Amino acid sequence: MGSWQRIAMVIMLVLVTLLALNGVSALDRFGLLLLRDDTTYALMGPRWFAITVRDVTALGSNWILIFLITSVCLILTIAQRVRHAVTLAIMAIGGVILSMGAKYIIDRPRPDLVEPLIHVYTPSFPSGHATMSMVCFLGAALVLTSVDGPARVRKAVITLAVVMSMFVGISRVLLGVHWPTDIIAGWLLGALWVDMVYRRSQLFKSRVVSAH
């Protein structure tokens, strides 16, 4: 990610945060009601669609992500890539702190325009599922593909990680538990944090190599 891209993401994150602080925007209403019945506000589509959405959102649940990060860190440690394991652990732990800290500082209420398909109890902004799925999926993809290998494979793995996080985030809006700006902020926050930690890790590696 280049400098101008990081600056653009920071600006977008600030703008989305301002939208969230000012209440429900037209973007939030439009996104939340996009795939819902105009009268009942029920999620449109066959019954299996709602079930599938709940399955997709589970990919960003705490236990799934804890299992993913723990497993990858353990594998990296066994493979004697301790620095990579530590980098991924810092990404995950820092992501939780950033996400939960922002939630309780901003304290945005959950959507009340529709009946949610699942029950949640924490504040709405930013989405923890969107933030942590981006942190964990993208972070794992970057760390696992950081060794020499085909560039196309690295791009494919990173793209898959981002797409998975996007599906998780979208599922939260479809379930009626997040505003779209919650999701956008979560994605941006997660991506910025991963980028910062990964670049710091690469800088530390280069300094160690230079010292030797």
From TrEMBL:
<dbReference type="GO" id="GO:0050380">
    <property type="term" value="F:undecaprenyl-diphosphatase activity"/>
</dbReference>
<protein>
    <recommendedName>
        <fullName>undecaprenyl-diphosphate phosphatase</fullName>
        <ecNumber>3.6.1.27</ecNumber>
    </recommendedName>
</protein>
<dbReference type="InterPro" id="IPR036938">
    <property type="entry name" value="PAP2/HPO_sf"/>
</dbReference>
<dbReference type="InterPro" id="IPR000326">
    <property type="entry name" value="PAP2/HPO"/>
</dbReference>
<feature type="transmembrane region" description="Helical">
    <location>
        <begin position="86"/>
        <end position="106"/>
    </location>
</feature>
<keyword id="KW-0472">Membrane</keyword>
<dbReference type="Pfam" id="PF01569">
    <property type="entry name" value="PAP2"/>
</dbReference>
<feature type="transmembrane region" description="Helical">
    <location>
        <begin position="156"/>
        <end position="175"/>
    </location>
</feature>
<feature type="domain" description="Phosphatidic acid phosphatase type 2/haloperoxidase">
    <location>
        <begin position="84"/>
        <end position="198"/>
    </location>
</feature>
<keyword id="KW-0812">Transmembrane</keyword>
<keyword id="KW-1133">Transmembrane helix</keyword>
<feature type="transmembrane region" description="Helical">
    <location>
        <begin position="126"/>
        <end position="144"/>
    </location>
</feature>
<feature type="transmembrane region" description="Helical">
    <location>
        <begin position="62"/>
        <end position="79"/>
    </location>
</feature>
